[in-house]
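Input:
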Amino acid sequence: MFYREAGQFKTSYKSDQAIFPILQDRIGLGLIVAIALIGIPFIATDGFLNSIMIPFLILALAAIGLNILTGYCGQLSLGTGAFMGVGAYSCYKLATIFPDVTILVHILLSGFFAAAAGVIFGLPSLRIKGLYLAITTLAAQFFLEWMFVRWGWLFNYNESGAIQNVPQKLFGVQITGAAADPVTRYLVVLSIVVFLTWIASNIIRGRIGRSWMMIRDMDIAAELMGIKPLNAKLSAFAVSSYFCGVAGALMVFFWLGSAEADVFNINLSFQVLFMVIIGGMGSLIGSFMGAAFIFVLPVVIRTIPRVLGLDIGGATVEHVSTMAIGALIVLFLIVEPHGLARLWQIGKEKLRNWPFPYG
Amino acid sequence: MLSEIFVEPFVLMADIPDLLLQTIWEGFVAGTLYALIALGFVLIFKASGVFNFAQGIMVVFAALTLVGLYANGVPAWLALIITIGVMAILAISIERVVLRPLVGQNEAILLMATIGLSLFVRGVGETLFGGETKTMITSELGLPTGITDWNVFDGRVTFQHIDIAAVVIAVLMVAGLAVFFSKTRIGRALRAVADDHQAALSVGISLHQIWAIVWFASGVVALVTGIMWGARSDVSFALEVIALKALAVLILGGFTSIPGAIVGGLIIGIGEKLFEVYWGGLLGGGTEAWFAYVLALIFLLFRPQGLFGERIIERV
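Output:
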């Protein structure tokens, strides 16, 4: 009823191959982008932008990165945090070596360093798969994290061992640094994330994306049909790490402001993996939903005692929320192992058939 | 530079043999503890195909429960018994609440479930006993605490008694498990389940029961590991990350092999200590954080099934 594609005829190849062939999807997406672009900057407070919207978008980008690798190409990785770190550190180096070039270029370039790291640590995927591969990606996680601490050149030998964002202006508007307005930073992050999501959806629709999915579904059959596992797997590692690297750079420059190596630890990897699994493997919209769920949920749980007027110590709230999140994740995996994206699909089906039980 | 890598460390080893012996001993003890954690993984992986990421947190949780009970006035021996009981309850509830509904799911989802579980157990432990670092009740449990010096090669090698006890207890436990697996009824049922789920079901072995037993067994292994590790350093949640090294051990030894877990643990324990002492300085130290994983990664490129693992055969 609400979501019927009946009567929408595709009369050209162009319209047949559109990303959103259905009118309702286009309207819906247009509305979401309009709200994100115009609505939220007007109504949101600085705190909301800083502590919810910006991190949500950045983590969603990282989740898209991991989803490309795990959801579309079927290679489990626990090294996401480290690849994000590579992006962040290389962006910092680029920004301090070339201070005159705009930060946006640095951020988009820094992803390539992460991609290179991803390809190197993705090499074992040619011989092994599944859980064995997941463990070798732990090597990336711990080795790179160690490097961020020990290799002083990476953080310009400063005392604190942390990397800071470099204040920069774009068209006369401060976009990074402490002086930058949260709304400006939000809009920059939003445009980068939207742009990269668009790129990702096109890569996935194309030849490369299809070869990843063939490898995921059955690698031997894919090989017989002429897909080179070497190219498919390593390109998945490269593209995935590119996205993670950009997310890491955004994280330091537009969200945290400064970061130590510890930010990119294994818990970040787990967090992003949760977003992918809870959101739905092999779904871009799922990455956003998963990021919202995993990132916003703890924030909500932590505010519950305050809303109820209970006087509980901060540490206890932290502990109880860890427990609650763990329990919710397990519950969610039991109830809907295919993630929020699957619920979204069921919802769309319901809307299509309403008011009838089936179409 | 080349001489620093290929010559000097060996010269140093030959010049100061007591340092070498000391390093190997330290690595041996650390390796024993890695092997114990890996053993917990192997038990569960063999019987249920679940890759239990929560093993590390189970080690911490068991040690925390023991210390926490003692701090609340429970005598040490009673605290030990209660802790074993708690691990049994944990095992049964994990089987009922988490594993049973997830049977037959994709391995990534099972892995995520155990990571979720580890968050939950961590939260429970922190809520009940607090997140701060605690000291293990070593002497109260009747474990030795002194040190013995052994004069050798004009030098001295120091043995902590607790380390010796750790090795002895580990050996006893592995032997006990081996006897349990080969001689008892439940042990044989366990091996049957590990071999073939459906065949085991068809001869009347209850999978649920076996899974609960296996989780309990690895809970007990976790408790012993927790006591030993806690006695060597202290009881804190940092142990959870160290416990991930057991995953590298598993790669070396193979996911399904108990001897593999032990040999792998020792190789990694001794290897990382030697590397840190003799080569770590070249890289700025702290190499123990990644050595195990990088070794496992290189090893995998040559032998994907591990030292003792079953050969991976793919059917189309």
